[in-house]
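For the sake of clarity, the format in which proteins appear in this thesis is described at this point. The fold follows as a row of integers, each naming the local backbone shape at the matching residue. One such record is shown here in full, so that the layout can be seen directly:
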Amino acid sequence: MKAIQVGLLGIGTVGSGVFNVLKRNQHEIRRRAGRGIEITMVADLDTARARSLVDAGVKVVSDARAVIANPEIDIVIELIGGYGIARQLVMEAIEAGKHVVTANKALLAVHGTEIFAAAHRKGVMVAFEAAVAGGIPIIKALREGLTANSIEWIAGIINGTTNFILSEMRDKGLDFDVVLKEAQRLGYAEADPTFDIEGVDAAHKATIMSAIAYGIPVQFDKAYVEGITKLGAQDIRYAEQLGYRIKLLGITKRTAKGIELRVHPSLVPAKRLIANVEGAMNAVMVQGDAVGTTLYYGKGAGSEPTASAVIADLVDVTRLHTVDAAHRVPHLAFQPDAMSDAQVLPMSEVVTSYYLRLRVADEAGVLAKVTGLLAAAGISIDAMLQREADQVAGEGGRPADGERGIPQTDLIILTHSVREGTMNEVIAQMQGLPTVLAPITRIRKEELA
């Protein structure tokens, strides 16, 4: 059987990995797919560089639309990234009757509903395993492997940059700004790391997983997003003393009121496997009603790990290329006419537990005022630490933060579960106390039991 022909849009780090892995493992891939898969056309603005990365028989062009217009191309791989031209090219490829494989989580999180509807209308596939957690086959697990389950929740470390930073802060006791510079020097963080450190990248991925888990439209605009920029080394140290580690988690959960969709730093019990995922690695926990808890671990980025997921999609599309569209796995696991209208909850309605750190004046009555406010709101305390001024002081024994010359202490409180809106109100009341000397640090706590 004639090999299926593939056009590649963008041959950067991932694109070159796709070409190399496909070439290196072509014999195994052909045996699995039932026919050969060949990249015969590449579009990249830097045509000279592109030609140096591919074989002589591959046609290299600067215009991506030339690839889409080629009637010999069956599958288009989009590795350009972003929301702009990538969206236009994907929609044009679909309109031209081409199957699409993409690693573009931002595009799908924002425009996925439109893209999947167009693909369904044209009877083509849009495959996107590489869009979430790099080489970890989490999309296939959610769409197919766990299809018998009612998914209860998903919690994932799905951004390697932030996990590397948090691991370094924990291991070396350094503050965020110092570790970020080191991550940039080592190539783990971009020159502009905003999407990573502010949680946006993880939120794109969590949005996609949520849609597949619950059969809801992709709704990135409704996700709660909070990054790691406000975390201090002392918070990581205190969490450790309480038996927890801090991870940036992407979380989606089914509740009686609706779907939770949120990304933020979380305290995770140190005994959980996911709490011990270090460096730039990714991991995703999925709780299903039948299977219980499953964990998926591996490299979330990189040339060949991401290429592995792209090529797995190529094989799937090749196998199903001639299958009637109605008999293929739906893009978001559920049939298009059976999608749910369950609402994504605002963060104020989410119920979870909390870590609070208050820098307070070290004087009588302060603790009573703080705990009194919690009690008045019906918030019970799970654990508490107090660290005296000499344990939180800066150089020369002076207080590290707050007003100089006033004896200070750090008060660390773990609460039981409470509605976020209620906690917001109590934190505002605490912040108004004259004995609270610095902004209160609040980190959510996830038991993942």
Notes: The two ends are 50 Å apart (CA to CA). The chain has a mean pLDDT of 94.
